[in-house]
Amino acid sequence: MRRLGLLALLAIAALGAGAGWLDSQISRPYSGRHPEKVFVDIPRGASRWDIAGILRQNDIIRNRLAFGLYSQWHFRKPLQAGEYLFDQPLNSRETFWKIAHGEIFVQTITVPEGWTMYDIANQLDRQEICQRADFLAAARNASLISDLDPHARTLEGFLFPSTYQFKRHTSCQQIVSTMVRHFRSAWSVIAVSAPGNVAPEEAVTLASLVERETPLPNERPLVAGVFYNRLHRGYPLQCDPTVQYALLIKGHPVANVRPEDLRVDSPYNTYEHRGLPPGPIANPGEASLRAALSPMSTDYLYFVANDQGGHSFSRTLEEHNRNVARLRRIRSADVPQNVSSLGRHD
Predict the structure, then answer these.
(1) pLDDT of residue 16
(2) What span, in angstroms and rounded, lies between the C-alpha atoms of 61 and 93?
(3) Could you say which DSSP state residue 154 is in?
(4) Cα separation of 188 and 172, whole Å?
(5) Which position among 7, 141, 144, 168 has the lowest Cβ density within 10 Å, counted as fewest Cβ atoms?
(6) How far is residue 237's CA from residue 230's CA, in Å, rounded to a whole number?
(7) Which helix (H) or strand (E) holds 108?
(8) Can you say how many angstroms the Cα of residue 67 is from the centroid of all Cα atoms in its chain?
C-alpha cells in the first residue's frame, strides 16, 4: 500500500511537472533568432505535427512537442492553410489561435471611384503589391472585356472601384482579373435594374465623365442628362476631365486645365472633337454607371462648378455665362483664371 501511495505521489508530481513544463513552453512569448518579419506558409493538408515542425523550423515557436500537444488538446479547432506573417514575438498559444482563426496575411488596397488605371498602378507600386509597369502592361490587355467593349484598347473604366485584399504573391494579371470580375458582377446588377439602349462601352465611357465631373451622387444623373442633351444636339461635350486625361496619357498630367490645354491634340479632347471620347477616362463607381444608364430628364445644356462643392446648371448660354461670372467673382481671390465650365466656348 505504501508503495502504491508513493507511486501515486510520483505520478502526480510528474504530471504537475509536465503541466508546468508545457505551460512554460506555450505561455512565454518567443522571438527566436529570425528577422523582424517572417512569412510562414502552411500548406493545405498538413497535419498538426507537420505544422508544429514548420513553425519550429522557422523559429516561430519555442518547442515542437509543446505546440503539438497543445494543438492536439484543441483538436476540434482545425488549423487553416495559407501564408502567415509573424512580425512580433508570440507565445505558442497565440500562434496556435492565429492559425486556427485563419489570420492569413493579405495586402489591402482601396481603389476610390474615379481613379484611372495610372492612379491604381501608382498605389499598387507604393504599397509594393505590384510594380507599376507590370500592372499597366496587364491593364493594356483588353481581351478580358472584348465581349463588353470590342474596341477597347485598355481596361480603363472596367477596373471596378472597391477595397481589395490580395495575397503576397498575387500577380498583376490576377489583380487586374479580380477588378474586372468585380466590374462584371456590379454591371450585371446595374444593367438589369436600369435597362437602356446604350451599349456597355458607351455607358462606361459616359459614366467615367460623370464620375470625374462631380463628387456628389445626387448630381450624377443630372450631369449625365446634360451630357446626353449635348450629344443629341451635336454640341461638343467640352468636359475638362477629358483634357486632363489626354494630357495624362501624353505624360503631362495637370491638376487644373489651363486655356492653352484645351487645344491639346488628342481624340480624348472633347473641346476639339464632338461626341464621346474613344474610351473611358477613369474607373466609375456604381452611382455613375447607374446615372449613365438612367440619366435625369432635363432641358439643361450647361453647368459650372459652384462654391458649395456642386454645380450650377443652366438652359441657355447667356444664363451659363452669368453663372461663370458669378463664380469667378467669388473665387477671384484664389483662382481668378481657372473655372471648370461646361460649354464656355459654345
Answers:
(1) 45
(2) 9
(3) S
(4) 24
(5) 7
(6) 6
(7) strand 107-110
(8) 38
| Residue-wise pLDDT tens digits, 130-186 | 999 999 999 999 999 999 999 999 999 999 999 999 998 899 999 999 999 999 999
List alpha helices for the chain, DSSP H. Answer: 2-27, 48-57, 64-73, 92-100, 117-126, 132-139, 172-193, 200-213, 220-233, 240-249, 286-293, 317-331
Nearest 10 degrees: CA dihedral of 87, 90, 93, 96?
Answer: 10
Coil/strand/helix, residue 328: helix
Q: What is the DSSP letter of 146?
A: T
Q: Which of 81, 89, 49 is nearest to 67 (CA)?
A: 49
Residue whose cell numbers read 504530471? 15
Q: Which residue has the cell 495575397?
A: 167
Residue holding cell 471648370?
A: 340
Residues 6+ apart with CB under 8 A from 221: 290, 291, 294, 295, 296
128 conformational bin, left if phi > 0, alpha if psi -120 to 50, beta if neither:
left
Report how far residue 172's alpha carbon sits from residue 117's, in angstroms, rounded to the nearest whole number.
12
